What we know:
This protein has 6 helices and 9 strands; from the N terminus they run βαβαβαβαβαββαββ. By secondary structure, the chain is an alpha/beta fold. A 7-stranded mixed beta sheet has the order 3-2-1-4-5-6-7. Strands 8-9 form a two-stranded antiparallel ribbon. The protein is globular and about 50 Å long.
Amino acid sequence: MNFAVFASGRGTNLQAIIRAAKKGKISANLALVVSDNKEAYALKRAKRAKIKTIIVEAKNFNSREDYDAELVKILEQENIDFIVLAGFMRIITSVLINKFRNKILNIHPALLPSFKGTHAIVDAFNYGVKFTGVTVHFVDEKMDHGPIILQGLVKIKENETAETLEAQIHKIEHKIYPEAIRLFSEGKLKFEGRKVNKATT
Length: 201
Ligand code: GAR
């Protein structure tokens, strides 16, 4: 199985995935890294690991649908079987979702359905929650909404700051995202309605 990682920024999750793949913890082939941001540090990480990169900039398209249609074209050309969103800061449309139904994974830095959106870590911290965490889920048409694959828990410490919390969150992300990719790519996830269970066989 071939997969693509989509990333807009630093790409620390991408790096964790590359590391896991190198160690043989993920057997699927990371064939492509796609970014909407030509400055994304994630692209440097991909190049260093000799992974093909493609930049698709939003300014060249009239609508989100046109943008996603271009992504579909690329993904089909590259024989991509599933997609991993790792800090890809764009809303994706049904043009892409319909072609890759239940084959797009996303990571969100909070315990969904709490603290959706782009500032989840700070939002949870400022809200005063005692626990927050990380969610890996399938992508559907609603933002931060699809079936949950794995979650990791983070306890807010007494002297926590938004910065130390962010570091805790990333540490958990880098552990559970490769694991979710492994489970998915080995066919070990089973749907029951919107519940995703680990297959026992
Ligand atoms: C991660 O913390 C991820 O959970 C978050 O972006 C960060 C990307 O970091 N995604 C979202 O907030 C999506 N709503 P990275 O570029 O270092 O992997």
